[in-house]
Amino acid sequence: MLTALTVAAVVLVAGGITWWAVGSGGGDCERTDVVRVAVAPELAPVAEEVLGGAQGLRAEDCAGVEVSAQEPLQTVGDLGALEAGDLPHLWVPDSSLWPARAGDVPLEVGESVATSPVVLATSRAAVDALGWTDRAPGWGEALAGRQALAVPDLATSAEALAALNAVRTALGADEDADNAVVQAVLAAERGPSISPSEALAAGSGDAADAPLVPVNEQEVYAINRGAEDSALVAVYPGEGSPSLDYPLVRVGSASGADSAAVNAAVRALTSDAARTAVLAAGFRDADGAAPPEAGEATGIQEAAPEALLLDPAQVQALLAQLSELADPSRILTVFDVSTSMEAPAGSGTRATLARDAAKSALSLVPGNFSLGLWVFANELEGEQDWTELVPTRQLDAEVDGGTQRDVLDEQLDTIPDRLTPGGTGLYDTTLAAVRAARANFDPTAVNSVLMVTDGTNDDEGLELAALLSTLRDEADDERPVKVIGVALGPDADLAALEEIAATTEGAAYSAVDPTDLQTVLFDALRQRG
């Protein structure tokens, strides 16, 4: 007669697959301790293999285990929402970035169960065409080059965040690096719509135009082992790679988190048997040792790339910055067309420079932004210093058979031809633009006025003190409009723009070097204050 019974099953549950093997000692067990383990989906088969029948988790031990293959983001949500008895005792996310996002939940982050470097997956044909067969590109070069980029969902993908943070680090981790990262993401969004899975399929099929996809190395290994003829390869940028570290995390708020059964599961997941299973599945171990079939057939290299460390706080700040782009902006852009804009700048004039920088920035901002366009000088339209060229509308809005983006692009081309022998009516125009933006206020967006000028106010209208006083008096907490000022060239009145910006909780930029304008203008367009 059986004195012990083992029950094993696999079921679909919300958020993933749950597998369990529950041991019951029949009449010999007063109760059965079941260890709940939440694991990143790609590592779940390894966890199932290692934990099934492990010492301390068998029927005769009056213990068992429940393994849930769950995306880390959902586990983070569960940690903050579920009762202690419903939480996992152990959690193995793909990256230590996730425990850092779990708020005040008591977690004990232990050693890594596995590691996997973050790489850029594409086809062999693409690597050959790009000249990367014998020369590894840098992160910045790879993600800002001519090859399309398929960026996974930044809310759920540690690989994507790690790759973008690697770009930021490689480029100096300053404001220019931040802009480069944001531009890479926006360029990907503005390009042809292709999902990471479609991009990986194109890479497997050896398409020369297969996009680059930030993934962990194990995914390339697994795809190639599971396909008869796959041309997918991992590109390892020259500066090194951040790694997913698959930490073993004890959830302190889960009941029985320090029980003998939980400790047995920890021992099993950190055992030599676990290391062997990890390597066989295409992961590296905690020391970076390669899987047994690393090489050309599996698309990954044997040597571990140089490690780029990830700072969870920096990555979280980057995520917050990128998340801001999901919130729409409503911007009235106002360009100076006074005669001083004829001054030489770079290979052209300040006017042509402003036109080219604005067109470049326009090509990057998301379609849910709303932009309008004015130009201004002294008495440009009768006694009025400004002229509206394009009303403020969403960039993707249909206008005369095209889109608002198309209309703006056409009108920006006309700026060098609109220069007038008048001076700069900066203050009157600023007040009029703020009033117009407030009159067309969108409560779902960040509303602002972007002023680009190369001079100082020389109009007989408002003085600076009167402008600042009026802006303060007319400020409306229910309809805030900030002014973003860009001082183009050495003769622009940056001090005045700074005072205007401070009064409206905006920002002011200086672009003395012509080569700075595109970066400054792009940063100004996404300014959130």
| C-alpha Rg (nearest Å) | 29 Å
As for the CATH topology of the largest domain, it is Rossmann fold
Counting DSSP E segments of at least 2 residues, the number of strands comes to: 21
CATH class call of the largest domain: Alpha Beta
Query: What is the annotated CATH architecture of the largest domain?
Result: 3-Layer(aba) Sandwich
For the record, what is the CATH homologous superfamily label of the largest domain?
von Willebrand factor, type A domain
Q: How would you describe the shape?
A: elongated
| Biggest beta sheet summary | 7 strands, mixed
Tell me the number of structural domains: 3
Number of helices: 17
Indicate the proportion of strand residues: 15-25%
Mean pLDDT, all residues: 86
How widely separated are the two ends?
A: 74 Å
| Poorly predicted runs of 5 or more residues | 1-17, 22-27
**Could you estimate the helical fraction of the residues in percent?**
25-40%
The neighbouring-strand order within the major sheet is 1-2-4-3-5-11-6
Structural class comes to alpha/beta
Keywords:
alpha/beta; 529 residues; D-Maltodextrin-Binding Protein, domain 2; 21 strands; Rossmann fold; 3 domains; seven-stranded mixed beta sheet; 17 helices; disordered N terminus; 33% helix; six-stranded mixed beta sheet
